[in-house]
UniProtKB/TrEMBL annotation:
<feature type="domain" description="FAD/NAD(P)-binding">
    <location>
        <begin position="9"/>
        <end position="319"/>
    </location>
</feature>
<dbReference type="InterPro" id="IPR036188">
    <property type="entry name" value="FAD/NAD-bd_sf"/>
</dbReference>
<dbReference type="InterPro" id="IPR016156">
    <property type="entry name" value="FAD/NAD-linked_Rdtase_dimer_sf"/>
</dbReference>
<dbReference type="Pfam" id="PF07992">
    <property type="entry name" value="Pyr_redox_2"/>
</dbReference>
<dbReference type="GO" id="GO:0050660">
    <property type="term" value="F:flavin adenine dinucleotide binding"/>
</dbReference>
<keyword id="KW-0285">Flavoprotein</keyword>
<feature type="binding site">
    <location>
        <position position="200"/>
    </location>
    <ligand>
        <name>NAD(+)</name>
    </ligand>
</feature>
<protein>
    <submittedName>
        <fullName>Dihydrolipoamide dehydrogenase</fullName>
    </submittedName>
</protein>
<dbReference type="InterPro" id="IPR023753">
    <property type="entry name" value="FAD/NAD-binding_dom"/>
</dbReference>
<feature type="binding site">
    <location>
        <position position="266"/>
    </location>
    <ligand>
        <name>NAD(+)</name>
    </ligand>
</feature>
<dbReference type="GO" id="GO:0003955">
    <property type="term" value="F:NAD(P)H dehydrogenase (quinone) activity"/>
</dbReference>
<keyword id="KW-0520">NAD</keyword>
<feature type="domain" description="Pyridine nucleotide-disulphide oxidoreductase dimerisation">
    <location>
        <begin position="356"/>
        <end position="461"/>
    </location>
</feature>
<keyword id="KW-0274">FAD</keyword>
<dbReference type="InterPro" id="IPR004099">
    <property type="entry name" value="Pyr_nucl-diS_OxRdtase_dimer"/>
</dbReference>
<feature type="disulfide bond" description="Redox-active">
    <location>
        <begin position="46"/>
        <end position="51"/>
    </location>
</feature>
<dbReference type="InterPro" id="IPR001100">
    <property type="entry name" value="Pyr_nuc-diS_OxRdtase"/>
</dbReference>
Amino acid sequence: MSEAVDESFDVIVVGAGAVGENAADRAGRSGLKVMVVERRLVGGECSFYACTPTKAMLRPVHAAHAAQRVRGVAGAHLVPAEVMARRDYWISDLDDSGAVRWLESAGIALVRGTARLVGERLVEVDGTTYRAGAAVVVATGTSPAVPDLPGLRDAKPWTNIEATTSSTVPERLVILGGGVVACETAQIYCALGSRVTLVERGPRLLGRAEPFASSLVAAALAREGVDVRLGVTVTAVSRPEPGGEVTVTLSDGSTVAGDEVMAAMGRTPNTGDLGLDVVGAEVDESGYVVVDDSMRVTSVPGDWLYAVGDVTGRNLLTHMGKYQARVAGDIIAARGAGRATDGPGMRAWADHLGAPQVVFTDPEVSSVGLTEAAARERGMDVRVVNVKMRAASGAGLQADEYEGYAQIVVDESRRVVVGATFVGQDTAEMVHAAGIAVVGEVPLERLWHVVPSFPTMSEIWLRLLEHYGL
């Protein structure tokens, strides 16, 4: 640690992704001086290597599919080079100057480098030490996991980073994993012309989703030409020549050849080199920082250390991380202004009700709250209602022969919806209304009086409640 300590800032946020930006913005609204530290691109993983680029590439796929499902439209097709150009526009050609300008406009200082905690409210960045007058916020996120499978790391696999920035479409792509990243990437590259093989060790794709959602996505991928292999594990990966053919050997004795192999097998928290041990910050068995609902790191005395976003492991979703960041930032701002810290927006209690999520495959899987299995694990008296999406008149108008299902999970003891899943074309925009029902714990009898517009897909709520018996 250098001898001189810079004490110019009240709040130091480590990590300038979307979550860190939110924490910094909210903390600075009461006049606190805020600094963020970033070792890569300001805007983070979501903006450049995850949410934004994948959705930029998937939207043309969805639009082409949607056009083909409506009688009266002909000729919709993809132009791969234009799809990638659209992606490059949305990730600003990996240039973060726009995000940097936003920080400047918000009065937030940026220091580029690698940060490490070296003491109470002390953060060292590449040899310079800063003391936060009020708080430090850890918002370092996660990195793609590349398991120690025989030969995999030597094969230099793609992760989401390479998949979202590649300027070429491999002729053959082998994707290891069956979660959100794997399924979305499989659909993108299959649509762009790759022969895609998807290898998932579990019995189904999207293992945390409702089983019917997994089945519909698997069937759609298979129809489009993805070779979906379930219930098999990778025993070895071989790439004798750099940049050459990759051979993946599976537990059933078969092999799959590809021009690229992608590891889409989970995430690991970016906590290993942060100096958390120096300040006594507790991490769980997976390395995630342990926090309470105020996002305070409970094992560190003094109420000065917070953690938000993926690094906490609570919900590995950008929107939930930003929600947590608003909570932490508001609490820090309130403390700085001498205000109470028990306001209605100052606890991240919605985390525990089940986060909203959209898998942007076609069909989309849009869900919020608890799955049936999770609700039963919590001991709830569960009743499930499942109807075809085409029961809503708006669905049939949206796509001829609309395919998809809607499901609600009801806690019968309270007669409230605790979970909802919609699978089908254009269901992403339906999940927020479901979230209001779940987080607001709206009684079914009151939901009955929320009248859906005709003819829209929201009419599915009426059908669900009718099937329930209202």
